[in-house]
Amino acid sequence: MRLSILVVFAVMMGAISGIYRYVVHEVTSGQSRFALPQSPQLGIAGPIDLSRLNLAPAIDTKEIQRLNAQAMASQIQANVRRMQDMSAYTRNPVGWHGLPPH
Fold it and tell me: How far apart are CA 14 and CA 78, in angstroms?
């Protein structure tokens, strides 16, 4: 009984494998069995130029410099506060509240 089930299963797997190899061969051969309808031309003469649409905002170099300076000043202030906290912690670690500064 088990042998017959095994034989039937092996035959089915062989058939599936053969079908798979046939389909792969047909797909990769490049020869189509039927003609697919071609889509109509859109009438575009050349590539689309997206730069004419003006989708991107103009880049203001003064504004970028101001934002960079503001970010740098904010980072410097945060570093100064952290150094002050570290200094206060080293002077009096017992009186420090919370975790020590990192």
Answer: 70
